[in-house]
């Protein structure tokens, strides 16, 4: 029997028509049991257009942040596998399908998309500044965190429901640093993390401001390092060596 799939898409000020087309492609390619949009500070236009898309639409009057939206969405799912994708469609459904196939093969319980994988195909690059900051951050993260990945921040990840039960209780980041924390917690808890190449195109109308986001991520790197060190220490205390 094929594992059931739930899809969560966190969104803040999305283009409702672009997102609606992406939702149609997701349903066609992945055939998920549930597609849940976690929409922050929606306009009437957002709700009107997306409500016609036959999805589970959850709205928040506050801007919770990407991490808080994904966590809320995953916690609301009742499927075997949870997957999230960014609302701008920068990860095409063909790559999202590859990520889901990897975890359905039962090789890993956590799977992440990677723009820096040697087999990834980049259709439209970020600006030079964003590429430099992203590469610098990835190097710093690999040096200090328990999970050694090429790309911590790619906007497509999936996890088995039982693994999320363990990982999710340690995820506190509400913003863009959630991806970093999710991967790091999975690593320190001992989960194998599959890194899958993707096709990816930078979105020029992204709501991500590179400089403030970079500072946010660097500050979060220190916090996540401290939290994962505490998790590792607690695990060592509970399972002493003989």
From TrEMBL:
SUPFAM superfamilies: Nucleotide-diphospho-sugar transferases. GO terms for biological process: protein N-linked glycosylation. The keyword Membrane does not apply. GO terms for molecular function: transferase activity. Gene3D superfamilies: Spore Coat Polysaccharide Biosynthesis Protein SpsA, Chain A. Pfam families: Glycos_transf_2. Keywords: Transferase. Residues 7-122 form the Glycosyltransferase 2-like domain. InterPro entries: Glyco_trans_2-like, Nucleotide-diphossugar_trans. PANTHER family: DOLICHYL-PHOSPHATE BETA-GLUCOSYLTRANSFERASE, GLYCOSYL TRANSFERASE. This is Family 2 glycosyl transferase. It comes from Natrialba taiwanensis DSM 12281. The lineage of its organism: Archaea, Methanobacteriati, Methanobacteriota, Stenosarchaea group, Halobacteria.
């Amino acid at each position: 029997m094929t594992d059931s799939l739930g899809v969560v898409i966190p969104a803040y000020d999305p283009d409702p028509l672009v997102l609606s087309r992406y939702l149609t492609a997701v349903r066609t390619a992945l055939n998920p049991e549930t597609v849940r949009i976690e929409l922050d500070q929606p306009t009437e236009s957002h709700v009107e257009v997306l409500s016609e898309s036959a999805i589970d639409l959850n709205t928040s009057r506050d801007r919770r942040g990407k991490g808080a939206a994904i966590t809320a969405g995953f916690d609301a799912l009742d499927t075997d596998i949870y997957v999230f994708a960014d609302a701008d469609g920068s990860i095409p459904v063909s790559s999202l399908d590859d990520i889901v196939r990897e975890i359905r093969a039962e090789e890993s319980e956590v799977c992440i998309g990677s723009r820096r994988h040697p087999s990834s195909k980049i259709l439209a690059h970020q600006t030079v500044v964003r590429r430099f900051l992203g590469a610098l951050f990835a190097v710093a993260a690999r040096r200090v965190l328990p999970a050694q990945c090429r790309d911590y921040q790619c906007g497509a990840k999936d996890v088995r429901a039982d693994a999320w039960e363990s990982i999710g209780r340690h995820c506190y980041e509400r913003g863009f640093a959630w991806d970093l924390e999710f991967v790091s917690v999975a690593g320190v808890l001992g989960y194998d993390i599959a890194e899958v190449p993707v096709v990816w195109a930078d979105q020029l109308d992204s709501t991500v401001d590179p400089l403030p986001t970079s500072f946010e991520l660097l500050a979060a790197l220190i916090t996540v390092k401290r939290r994962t060190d505490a998790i590792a220490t607690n695990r060592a205390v509970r399972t002493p060596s003989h």
